[in-house]
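The authors assume throughout that readers already know how a fold can be written as discrete tokens. A single example would do more here than another paragraph of explanation. An entry of this sort, consisting of the sequence and the corresponding backbone structure tokens, reads as follows:
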Amino acid sequence: MSIPVLIVGAGPTGMTAALELSRLGIPVRLIERGPAPPPVRLRRPSGPGPSASRPGRWS
């Protein structure tokens, strides 16, 4: 049985926490007092990860 998690604040940290918990199958409720944030479309990088020629950037 999973216990739902309440995350207060839809800033970068709150959104990241909600995403990661959801990926683990943990139910999440995310609340924000301000206007709703814009919809987020998740994209996966096309390459294997940061490259040596372009550190920190996806190849």
